[in-house]
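help with these tokens:
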Amino acid sequence: MKAFAYLTADDFEAASKALAGKGPRAVAKAGGTDLLTLLKSRLLEPDEVVNLSRAKRGAGKGELSALATLAEVAADAWVKENFPAVAKAALEAATPQVRNAGTVGGNLCQHTRCWYFRDASYTCFKRGTGDCSAAPDGAENRYHAIFPHKRCVSAHPSNLAPALIAVGAKVACVHPDGDRTLDAEILYDEGPSGRRSDTILREGELIRAVLLEPSPLAKRSTYVELRERQSFDFALASVAAALDLDGGIVKDVRIVCGGVAPVPYRATAAENLLRGRKLDVEAAARAAVAGATPLSGNGYKVPILGELVRRALTELSS
């Protein structure tokens, strides 16, 4: 990999100032589980790496520090009690070794695993080097998106993102020009050509914490996924669901899918079908996949996603 300067920040504010205005010449590092592979493959060639691992966490009640590890989130009794989907999503991520190093912020901001994106010899819309190499018939696209996209068919890899959106979480962000708090749902956008990240974070902006507010919807929530290798793999598809039932009637529901679109995909058609009516698991599963537009090699994801929706809602209805 290219040589770089290594800076250690005492807090998020200092790290954000060190990153701002430098574009790809400076990158942040927390657990480093994704960053290291990008550096070794030279997809990222920064002049500076800003280490966040020693930054003060400063998260209070109802907050998850962006530097909390996935293992810590999965084991947190308060999270498991009030936001079971979040705890389950953290527990499903990668391996124990990765969960002990990977962080909340890193999981939310990780780059796509698309092999065309990660191989500079191919054209890639996300990298800004041409059209998407995964989209044409005959391409190696069996792990890619099955829902409409903006000229990029990569599949979003985060476990936590669908769960946080399902429970209505917010993210607190730090930037030299002013801090802000965003709904987790609007953190992501496919973005224009050349924008590698799928988040809407500004240059130098960092997620400081995830904000969680208990609610009946969040308390009855779950996360399910299917992957080829149970020992270690990214999800072929995942579903985070949250359900607020009152006398058998669905007061509110959220169904958010991962691994099937360039950003977390909220199945609003299925939600609208259920809200205000008796729970109909089969109808919701059909509605969740109705808008799918699979590629030449990943049509198998459609029935998998429908089954995951069934499993999640059946679990929550019991």
Remarks:
- The chain has one domain: 60-318.
